[in-house]
Amino acid sequence: QVQLQESGPGLVKPSETLSLTCTVSGGSVSTGSYYWSWVRQPPGKGLEWIGYIYYSGSTNYNPSLKSRVTISGDTSKNQFSLKLSSVTAADTAVYYCARWPSGKDWGQGILVTVSS
Amino acid sequence: DAVMTQSPLSLPVTLGQPASISCRSSQSLVHSDGNTYLNWFQQRPGQSPRRLIYQVSKRESGVPDRFSGSGSGTDFTLKISRVEAEDVGVYYCMQSTHWPWTFGQGTKVEIK
Predict the structure, then answer these.
(1) Contact between B92 and A35 (Cβ < 8 Å)
(2) Which has the closest alpha carbon to B27: B107, B106, B99?
(3) What is the least distance, in Å, from the CA of B103 to any CA of chain A?
(4) At residue B85, what are phi and psi to the nearest 5 degrees?
(5) Neighbours of A14 (CB within 10 A)
(6) B53-78: pLDDT as tens digits
């Protein structure tokens, strides 16, 4: 069974870059035709798909965030990462990593607060 | 973007009674490969989302058969035949036909 675990700072200052890592166990980020994804959820609100890195290494980002997002993979550590630049309070959210199209493989989520 | 609109947004239900959630897309969700990638997720309080239904009507393994999905094109429905206490939470439809993949606003199911 694949497990995903988000890690990173829980507090980021406005205008800085949010950086999160998803560590995968029980499966490889470089095989299996999966879209290794980031999804976020502002407190009390709905879900937004940020983007993904395909197992082959190609990426796709939500146009609403494209200018600020980078998703990358590290096959040696079996991890993939999210960087979101120039953050504001509107980027405060729980950030989930997920393996798509498997519907069961989501991390527990990490709350990132943008505040000075 | 494919805008997903759910109704109702709040659904108080009596235990043992049926419940139904509607989801409408602003564009057809039929993919060029012929499949329709409409998913339903359940999010219990304090938990990560969990997919219940994929490709309109296919239940994930382990999902009780009281959950069913139906629909086509732009109109879809999630039905719970008999609501149980563990079904409390927020339900989201989500399309993965068109990029960016998008979610509905969510429907909060609570017990009356």
Answers:
(1) no
(2) B99
(3) 6
(4) -60, -35
(5) 12
(6) 999 999 999 999 999 999 999 999 99
